[in-house]
Fold this protein.
Amino acid sequence: MGIITVLWEKWTEFKRDFYKITLAAMVSPLMYLIIFGMGIQTTSHGEPYLNFLIPGIVAMSTMTGSFSAVAQNMSVQRLYEKALDQVMVSPTPLWQFIVGQIIGGSLRGIYAAVMILILVYPIHTGLIFNALSFGIMFLNGLVFSTIALTLSFLAKSYTDAPRFTSYIIMPMSFLCNTFFSTDQMPSGFREVVNILPLSQASAMIRGIAHGQAPGAFGILVLVSYLVIFSLISVNFIYKKKNL
Amino acid sequence: MIEISHLTKKFGEYTAVEDLNLTVKTGEFFGLLGPNGAGKTTTISMMSTVLLPTEGKILIDGKPLTRKNSEEKRKLSVITQEYSMRQDMTMDEVMEYQGRLYFMKKKDIKEKTEKLLEFSGLIDHRRKIVRHLSGGMKRKLMICRALMIDPEILLLDEPTAGMDALSRRQMWNLLRQVNGKDMTIILTTHYMEEAQSLCDRVALINKGRLDAVDSPQKMIESLGAFAVDVFQENMTKSRFFTTRDDAIEYIRNLEGKASMRDTNLEDVFVERIGRSLMKK
C-alpha cells in the first residue's frame, strides 16, 4: 500500500514535469548518438559502431534516468522542503517508502531508455530489445535508484546531488562499456571497472541485442549492489538519529 | 496518554533537551513554552520520530513510540514550524498524499479535503502549487493536512506563526473545536496569549530542562494575579500582588507613572525564564 502511495507521488511528479523529464532524458544520449554514432562513422567488432553504441546508451539512460529521478528529488525533500518529515511521522512503513522510491526511480530510467529506443527505431539496426532487455534495464534502474537514495540520505546539503552526478554518474557513463569495450582497458583497471554495475548492465543489454543470453555473473553483480545499497538505505531511515 | 521519561537529545557536545519528564493526559491541551533554543522544536521532532532521542523514551498509551511502530504513529499528526511539504504539489495533491500515507479511502480523502479546504477558506486555491501560496496560506494548508487524518494526538510547533490576527483567531477556534472532541494537543508557541487562552497546562522549558509545569491560571496566581507596571528611567518594571488592594496601595505610595492590570502568562514567562537569561 505504501509502495503504491510513493508510485502515485512519482506519477504526479512525472505528469507535471512531463516535458522537462522527457527532454532531459533525450538530450545527452541523442548528442552521443549523433556525435559518436553518426558523425564519427566507424565500425566495431566488424559491424557499424552504432550497433555497439546503442545498447550502451540505453543502459546509460536507465542509469542517469533512475539516478536523477531519486537523487535530486530526495535531497530536496529531505534537506530543503523537509517533506520527508511528513513520511517519517506517518504510519506508512518506511521500508515500503524506500521500495516505492526505488521502483519509481527505475521506471523513470526505463522511460528514458524507451525514449532512446524510439529515437533510434528508424535506423533499422537489427538489434534485439525484448522482455529480457527490459528486465536488465529495470534491474539496472533499481540499482541506481538505490545508490541515489543512499547518497541523498548521506547528503549534507541539497546541492550535493549535482556533485554526486559529477563524481559517480559521469565517470561511469564514459568508462563502463558505453562507448568502448572494457576489454581495451589495461589489466587491473579493467577488473575494477568490470565490477561496476553499468559495465555489467551495458554488457548484458548489448549481449541480448546481439542474440546472446545474459550472464549469471552480471546479474549477480547488479543484485549485490541492489542488496547492499538497499540495506544501507533501510538502516539509515530506521536508525539515523538526526534525519 | 503520552509519557515522556528522561528524554535527552544531544547534537555532538550540545545538549538540546536534558532529562525531560512529562505526562500529557488524553484530551489535554498542553503547551510547551520557552525562549528560542529552549528545546521545544527538538522535543516535538522526537515526538514525531524525525529525531531519535539520545536517551529516554516516549510512550503513547503505554506503548513505545518508534519509527517502526506504525500503530502508534497512526495516532499522531504534526504541524512543524517550517513548511514541511512538497512545494511542487497542488493543495489537492498535498492533501491526497497525506490521506494515502495514512491509508485513507479515496472517497474519504476527497470528502475530507473539500471540508477542510472549505473551512479554512482555501477551496478556491486548491489547484495552486504550494510554492505559489502566501506564508499564511501555506500555514493553513499544513493545519488542514494535519487534521485530514483525524489524529488522536496533534503536535503543533508554532502553528500560527506568520498568520494575521483574524486567521489566528479562526485557528484558535478550530483548535478548541478539535480539542473538544478528545484530541490531545501539544502546542509550542511564542504567543503567550495563545497558550494562556488555549492550554489546560503549560510546561516552561529553558535550556533543554523543564522549569515548571502547571495550569496557566495557577502559574499566574503563584506570581500574583495583579500586576503594576511602573515607568522609571525609560524602563518599565512590573511588580506583582496577590490582591487588588495591595496593588492599589503600592501605586498610591509611588511617585512616578504606573498602571495596574491583570497578570498574564507572559509575565510568568518573563519572570521565570527572562530572569534566568538576564542573569546569564
Q: What stands out?
A: The longest strand of chain B covers residues 14-24.
